[in-house]
């Protein structure tokens, strides 16, 4: 669970009254941040740091919007580290993107340590311990690996044994942290699931900290002053109904305090974790790990009888029948279907799964080898959890939740059963915000028209202090904005005219631009259409064209954009946020469409119906606030440093024609922008465009 990055033992005396004094010394004009690190003074950063320090001292919560370039990571890390050491309380920093986690651990934390070392009064604080909280399943367990090697003929087929040997070679090479992310390519789940630390076999009684990365990290967890965790794991732990230490005095740890970076994501991530989530692939993997009838492999391959194997096979058949029914009778040719009421899903799987669980209990009691006994007990617990979630889903007793079925995974071959709370704000208020703990929620995009009311309502936080600090970047000088007035309505009847316009506009804009261009889409169908149409034409520009989902990961696309410097990249979903490439390599952002949520999602539908029953507008309460935040996130991809210059291009003419357009215009980082048509803009520039192919 815990990745330890640094370990130091000394601890300053408890002196919280010094927090404001030390914070001021660091961030004031001519302070330590300027002197020791050579950073430019930013009044916005100073204001944020002092506001957070005051909330820490008062035991209050703070919602803070900090514009791009404020330096918010240092603004919260320095007070957090000082307060953690002064009070002997751990700070948990929760962030949603890998890129920010890497920035914190590789850049910001070392900067804080160097900063504190530079001053004699603060030097003792530089010895803070920093850790990264990871889920147990990320770690290799040496005990489980040894057991798998001894019993591999029972567990794995030949191809899986080759993967087992690859993992063994990696383990023998003394990996840095023993986590799956160090393996390239990543290990296959059907083998890794039987080797990772998410097992009763991996415990302090059975695994030596000298050999087990997870246990070594766990042994040092109490020393950590600063713990970095992702939103997903934090909410997974909260969903267990208690903190990680089962301690009511803290959120995850005893007497801790919390920083939520990228806090605009909280409600969305909570939706994914406070409910049911069962997939056809997870169920199949669980059963086949017990015993795979087709291969004759599994945990009970030697211990079980022919009758036991039939029980497993029957559970597998019933599970397959269940998901086949869902595929044919419920989903049909749709990718997502909302369920209302009860009784339209078969329950025949329940008895077969219950019998399999009883079998696991019986065999675990009969097993003489302790490792097998523990593995069977773990599988029993997993089966009980799946059975409970299936029953909850089929019977749908929780009237406060929304239930739906959807396809996902590669080629849409996996079926997911999902549910989410209709009012996630109430769940967050109960499980997170009612704790009487200091807490910071920060992001560059939390407000609507300068107010936090919509955000506070959406996440369920009440009575928090508020702070807003603008970006120090000179947008008036470094950013140009053009809005096209002739783009067809994306929701209009002539869909082909809209798509043709997108292709031509993206081509013209990117071709006439010297640096790199990121075109942002709100759905993959539009992205794929434009990518296919642009491919042949773009080759003549002797520059690269890339698209999300077309052969490269997000990190690989970022690397190519930076290295090549003048690519055209088409991105959707995650590219609106957390995708950073400074300089001319990303100096043009094209917003193809205002980023409204799909109104067809079951959760959106249910929440809309609830609002309409109260005579409230779902558009004003849900759609518009969410779209404005995403819009600002997309714009934020462009200017990432004080030296950056760029052009923002908005193709969606609804920003000019619709009444809600003014809300989007109000969120632009500068008031002046150009309104033009596609033909006028390029006739004026003298840019020649070959119409062939469009």
Report on this structure.
- The protein is of the alpha/beta class and 694 residues long.
- The chain is globular.
- It contains 27 helices and 19 strands.
- The strands form three sheets. The protein has an eight-stranded mixed beta sheet with strand order 1-4-5-3-6-11-2-12. The protein has a seven-stranded parallel beta sheet with strand order 15-16-14-17-18-13-19, sandwiched between helices.
- The C terminus is likely disordered.
- It starts with a strand and ends in a 9-residue tail after the last helix.
Helix-residue proportion: 40-55%
Q: N-to-C terminal Cα separation, in Å?
A: 53 Å
In DSSP terms (H or I, runs of 4 or more residues), the helix count works out at: 27
Portion of residues in beta strands equals 5-15%
Shape field? globular
How many whole angstroms does the radius of gyration measure? 27 Å
Short description:
Helices cover 45% and strands 13% of the residues.
């Amino acid at each position: 669970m815990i990745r330890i990055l640094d370990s130091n033992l000394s601890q300053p005396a408890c002196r919280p009254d010094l927090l404001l004094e030390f914070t001021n010394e660091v961030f004031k004009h001519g302070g330590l941040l300027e002197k020791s690190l050579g950073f430019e003074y930013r009044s916005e950063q100073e204001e944020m740091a002092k506001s957070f320090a005051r909330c820490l001292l008062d035991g209050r919560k703070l919602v803070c919007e900090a514009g791009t370039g404020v330096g918010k990571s240092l603004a919260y890390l320095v007070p957090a580290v000082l307060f953690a050491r002064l009070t002997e309380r751990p700070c948990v920093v929760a962030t949603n993107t890998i890129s920010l986690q890497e920035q914190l651990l590789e850049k910001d934390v070392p900067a804080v340590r160097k900063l504190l070392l530079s001053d004699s009064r603060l030097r003792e604080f530089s010895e803070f311990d920093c850790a990264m909280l990871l889920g147990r399943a990320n770690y290799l367990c040496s005990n489980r690996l040894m057991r798998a090697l001894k019993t591999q003929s029972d567990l794995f087929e030949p191809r899986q044994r080759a993967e087992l040997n690859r993992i063994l070679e990696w383990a023998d090479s003394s990996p840095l942290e023993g986590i799956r992310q160090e393996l390239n390519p990543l290990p296959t789940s059907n083998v890794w699931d039987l080797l990772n630390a998410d097992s009763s076999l991996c415990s302090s009684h059975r695994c030596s900290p000298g050999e087990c990365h997870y246990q070594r990290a766990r042994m040092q967890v109490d020393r950590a002053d600063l713990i970095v965790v992702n939103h997903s794991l934090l909410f997974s732990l909260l969903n267990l109904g208690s903190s990680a230490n089962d301690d009511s005095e803290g959120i995850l740890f005893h007497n801790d305090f919390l920083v939520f970076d990228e806090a605009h994501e909280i409600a969305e991530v909570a939706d994914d974790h406070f409910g049911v989530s069962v997939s056809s692939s997870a169920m199949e993997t669980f059963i086949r790990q017990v015993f795979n009838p087709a291969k004759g492999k599994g945990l009970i391959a030697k211990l079980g009888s022919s009758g036991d194997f039939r029980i497993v096979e029957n559970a597998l058949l019933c599970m397959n029948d269940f998901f086949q029914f869902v595929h044919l009778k419920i989903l049909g040719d749709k990718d997502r279907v909302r369920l209302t009421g009860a009784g339209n899903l078969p329950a025949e799987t329940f008895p077969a799964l219950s019998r399999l669980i009883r079998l696991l209990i019986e065999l675990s009691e009969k097993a003489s080898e302790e490792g097998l006994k523990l593995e069977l007990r773990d599988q029993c617990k997993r089966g009980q959890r799946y059975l409970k979630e299936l029953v909850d889903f089929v019977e749908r007793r929780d009237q406060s939740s929304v239930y739906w079925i959807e396809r996902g995974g590669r080629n849409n071959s996996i079926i997911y059963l999902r549910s989410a709370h209709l009012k996630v704000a109430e769940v967050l208020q109960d499980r997170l915000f009612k704790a009487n703990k200091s807490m910071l929620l920060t992001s560059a995009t939390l407000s609507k028209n300068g107010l936090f009311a919509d955000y506070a309502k959406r996440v369920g936080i009440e009575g928090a202090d508020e702070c807003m600090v603008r970006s120090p970047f000179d947008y008036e000088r470094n950013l140009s904005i053009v809005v096209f007035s002739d783009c067809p309505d994306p929701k209009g009847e002539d869909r082909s005219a809209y798509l043709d316009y997108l292709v031509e506009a993206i081509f013209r804009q990117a071709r006439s631009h010297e640096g790199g261009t990121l075109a942002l889409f709100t759905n993959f169908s539009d992205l794929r259409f434009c990518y296919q149409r642009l491919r042949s034409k773009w080759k003549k520009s002797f520059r690269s064209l890339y698209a999300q989902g077309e052969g490269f990961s997000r990190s690989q696309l970022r690397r190519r954009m930076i290295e090549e410097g003048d690519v055209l990249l088409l991105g959707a979903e995650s590219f609106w946020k957390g995708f950073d490439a400074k300089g001319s390599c990303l100096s043009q952002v094209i917003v193809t469409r205002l980023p409204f949520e799909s109104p067809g999602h079951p959760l959106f539908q249910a929440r809309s119906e609830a609002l309409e029953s109260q005579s409230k507008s779902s558009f004003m309460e849900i759609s518009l606030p969410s779209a404005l935040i995403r819009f600002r996130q997309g714009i934020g991809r462009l200017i990432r440093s004080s030296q950056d210059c760029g052009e923002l291009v908005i193709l969606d003419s609804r920003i000019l024609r619709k009444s809600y357009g003014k809300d989007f215009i109000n969120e632009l980082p500068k008031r002046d922008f150009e309104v033009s048509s596609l033909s006028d803009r390029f006739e004026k520039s003298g840019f020649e465009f070959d119409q062939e192919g469009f």
